[in-house]
Write a structure and sequence with these properties.
Largest sheet: 5 strands, parallel
Number of helices: 8
CATH class of the largest domain: Alpha Beta
CATH topology of the largest domain: Rossmann fold
Helix content: 40-55%
Mean pLDDT: 84
CATH superfamily of the largest domain: Response regulator
Structural class: alpha/beta
Low-confidence stretches: none
Strand order of the largest sheet: 2-1-3-4-5
Strand content: 15-25%
CATH architecture of the largest domain: 3-Layer(aba) Sandwich
């Protein structure tokens, strides 16, 4: 599953530069030029990383960053500020508001990609490596092998993608609709109740041998991978 980047930037040239280089590096990029639209998209379909311009019309990047940090859905999403304001007081202010990193314009696309990878290693290490771990479960993104307590777990393709999505976002509750978009894809029509069927299959496969069930059902909300279940 590709790392998803939301770019909030009103300069078309920079948007095209960032999109071209990130997509070549196998990132999935969604871009908007309006801060309010960016806030809405970030809350509705939470990205893995947000690249945020400081100087935006109507709503500044600082205010957007402040609101993202106040929203439960986006409070922990890594944010990298993109700005021409290179003075130390500006950098400090951006970091104090809640940005995880600060890249000044003009910038090297290679440096930006390196900054994204570094932020992911610090903030969400599961997205930066080949192996995901949660309690006694490990998932290898290269070999597509899932182990639990040194026992190989056999999963179907959909159950594997479900588990990987949960392990990339431990503790977060996903609705059926969010899981359909993230695991099945936006362009595939599947009944929301289909998610329940695959969750049951995933639970059965993962919990053979009386293993603890880490998949939590949240009534009227959805599902989460949670060690406190």
């Amino acid at each position: 599953m590709k790392t998803r980047v939301l770019l909030i930037e009103d300069d078309l040239n920079i948007t095209e530069l960032v999109r071209y280089n990130l997509e070549r590096a196998d990132y999935k990029v969604e871009s908007v030029a309006d801060g309010e639209e960016g806030l809405y998209l970030a809350a509705q379909d939470t990205p893995d990383v947000i690249l945020l311009d400081w100087m935006l019309p109507n709503l500044s990047g600082l205010e957007i960053c402040r609101q993202l940090r106040r929203n439960e859905e986006t409070a922990n999403v890594p944010i990298i500020m993109l700005t021409a304001r290179a003075d130390e007081p500006d950098r400090v202010r951006g970091l104090e508001i809640g940005a995880d990193d600060y890249v000044t314009k003009p910038f090297s696309p290679k440096e930006l990609i390196a900054r994204i990878q570094a932020v992911l290693r610090r903030v969400r290490p599961a997205l930066a490596g080949h192996e995901l771990r949660f309690e006694d479960i490990s998932l290898d993104n290269v070999s597509h092998r899932v182990m639990r307590n040194d026992t190989l777990i056999h999963l179907g393709p959909t159950e594997y993608r479900l588990l990987r999505h949960f392990m990339e976002n431990p503790g977060r509750v996903f609705s059926r609709e969010q899981l359909l978009d993230s695991v099945w894809g936006h362009d595939v029509y599947v009944e929301p109740r289909t998610v329940d069927v695959h969750i049951r299959r995933l639970r059965k496969a993962m919990n053979e041998g009386d293993g603890k069930d880490y998949i939590r059902t949240v009534r009227s909300a959805g599902y989460a991978l949670d060690k406190h279940r």
